[in-house]
Amino acid sequence: xxxxxxxxxxxxxxxxxxxxVSLKIEAGEMVALIGANGAGKSTLLNCLSGTVRPRGGSIRxxxxxxxxxxxxxxxxxxxxxxPEGRQILVELTIEENLLLGELARGGRPSNYGxxxxxxxxxxxxxxxxxxxxxxxxxxxxxxAIGRALMGGPRLLLLDEPSLGLSPLITDQVFSALxxxxxxxxxxxxxxxxxxxxxxxxxxxxxLEHGEMAFEGRSADLINDEKVIAHYLGHLA
Length: 236
Hints:
The protein is α/β, with parallel strands linked by helices. The chain has a domain at about 5-85 and about 155-235: 3-Layer(aba) Sandwich (Rossmann fold), CATH 3.40.50. It is about 35% helix and about 25% strand. The chain has ten helices and ten strands. The strands form two sheets. The protein has a six-stranded mixed sheet, with helices on both faces. A four-stranded antiparallel sheet has the order 2-1-4-5, covered by helices on one side. The radius of gyration is 17 Å and the shape is globular.
């Protein structure tokens, strides 16, 4: 088992954000986590990557308990997080941003180097000497994904990768993610476009008000009348 979360709880300023959340991800899967705004999706990813300390529950990554671990220790085990908003360093060049991603490796071997990132996103190689701030929103998303790849992820967490992107760039980003998954990278995807997320993944979890409401095969959820009526209509 790549990732196993049991009864996870988290709160902000005393307000519960997650209650008894459990999920599992096998190595090689691409899994979607969908839900309305405020459902707790980003909080869950932040707990996994160590930027939010959970109040209770267990997070086991490749058999090791990581709940409450510092973010740099989590990343050096191979769990890498591409946060909402990308958070690239706009004054550094594209290549400098990518090379910074290697810090997360901590001596671990990696399947991804500059050549691999540039092959996946050719526009980054074309503009590698330009500052990160000169890139469009879609290109910055590619850079954020590329930077995470440079850290040698075993499991890649993505928070709203299509947010604010045009349909064309969204297609390019999802195509890249599916290529990475086909090559063996395990991915947990939080995505506002529920239909697109379910089309791209093998399994999915639906989070509602900090609790798991549904889980199952993505192909089943996208055709489930109850899910469509109560969730996909306003999530799409």
